[in-house]
Amino acid sequence: MPPPFLRREAFGVSIQSAKRSDHMLPYALIDLHCDTLTALRPEDAPLLAALRDPARRRETASALADRVRETNTLDLPGRHFSLSAIPEGVHWCQCCAIFIPDGLIQEEAVSCYDLHRRSFSRQMEALSDKVLPCHTADSIESAWAQGKAAAVLTVENGSALAGQLDRVETLARDGVRMVTLTWNGENEIGSGSGTDHGLSSFGREAVRALEEHSILVDVSHLNDRGFNDLLKTASRPFVASHSNARAVCGHRRNLADEQIREMVRRGCLIGLNYCVDFLHTGDRPAGLDDLWRHVEHLLELGAERCLALGSDADGADFPPGLDSPERFAGLYPYLLDRGLSTELAEGILWKNALGFFRKIW
User: Fold this and answer.
1) Dihedral angle computed from the Cα positions of residues 136, 77, 316 and 269, in that order, rounded to the nearest 10 degrees
2) Burial of 3 (0-12, 13-18, 19+ CB in 10 A)
3) Which residue, 55, 118, 148, 231, has most beta carbons within 10 Å?
4) CA–CA distance from 12 to each of 4, 9, 290, 335 (Å)?
């Protein structure tokens, strides 16, 4: 028997014969995570790599700052995400992460945060004909009503707090609306998926402070022990901005079934990640059908109101069918042709995320 989330009219219809919706675009699309803000041009990759070398860090940071000040990273051609490549008629909301590498701590992490925060503000002014910075669900819808994209500032790596609780207020004042607690390594808050420690005492305080300032707590990259610690600490629904299902792809960055069930119970939000490493294991190339397997599994666990998109654009390798805004939007007809109802497909593309934002912000 077909799963209950499939459209009745799609029962027994092959994918090849069900391409009724190829021409359709979604009304809107909300992407919970991209690295586009901090991803410079390919020729600048050595600079980013050099940041991890303490002996070269100060010199590299200066050169990197010059690049950041002169580059509109959110509107470069040939990227996973570019403002100019958004399909006409699609209302887009992009959560733009300030990514802070694990090698940067304390003052260096704060300097990295400040550099990219200023870049975000500058780009919002320079590209104001295309995009508006947004802090609430209402402001997102207002940007759409003006025919512009919405940009939400987020942080990937709680090292931006530098171990100081008062920096939560600073981030809130700067318009940050979500913080990924860790990256793959350790920081003052806790440990990422590459380590095995849980949340620190400061980390538990930081979670409470973030909640008090209505900044979303993001558990993507957090390890299992840290996730369990968070369950004992968090009093509000939280987010896994770019994580898939571990039962489908056994990477430790993905969510275990018991974690997904608990997030569903708490009314949390889970953003589907397009990174090939988190879609499937094995030698064959990943594709859209691998993403579908995660969708199907998450829906079977009851996540129909919790499921969203969290692409990880410009921060990972993507399958060919998911490597541009136009192809992101193409998920809508793909999901319909897979048999999802319009309500479920629109929930994944934008309605679930917008409703979640409205509850928290």
Assistant:
1) 20
2) exposed
3) 148
4) 14, 8, 21, 16
Overall size of the chain counted in residues: 361
Q: pLDDT of 233-250, one tens digit each?
A: 999 999 999 999 999 999
Please determine, for residue 292, whether its predicted confidence score (pLDDT) is greater than 80.
yes
> Across the chain, what does the average pLDDT equal?
91
- Return the C-alpha torsion angle 120, 122, 123, 127, nearest 10: 140
DSSP state letters, 236-252: S--EETT--BTTTS--T
H-helix or E-strand spanning residue 119 = helix 106-126
Bridge partner residues of 303 (DSSP): none
Q: How far apart are CA 138 and CA 58, in angstroms?
A: 41
More confident residue, 4 or 200: 200
Mean pLDDT score, 60-70? 71
Alpha-carbon 168 to chain mean position: 20
Name the amino acid, one letter, at 6: L
The band of 17, judged by pLDDT with boundaries at 50, 70 and 90, is: very low
- Token pair, residue 309, equals 């998109």
Strand 149-156 relative to strand 91-99: parallel, antiparallel, unpaired? parallel
- The first and second tokens of residue 161, run together, are 């707090």
Q: Are 310 and 242 in contact (CB under 8 A)?
A: yes
What is the pLDDT confidence band of residue 22, given thresholds at 50, 70 and 90? low
To the question of pTM greater than 0.85 for the whole model, the response is yes
Whether the CB-CB separation of 167 and 190 falls below 8 Å is answered with no
Which whole number is the average pLDDT over 50-75? Answer: 75
What is the CATH T-level fold of the domain 20-38+73-100+123-360, as seen in this structure?
TIM Barrel (3.20.20)
Is 89's pLDDT higher than 80?
A: yes
How far is C-alpha 303 from the geometric centre of its chain's CA atoms? Answer: 17
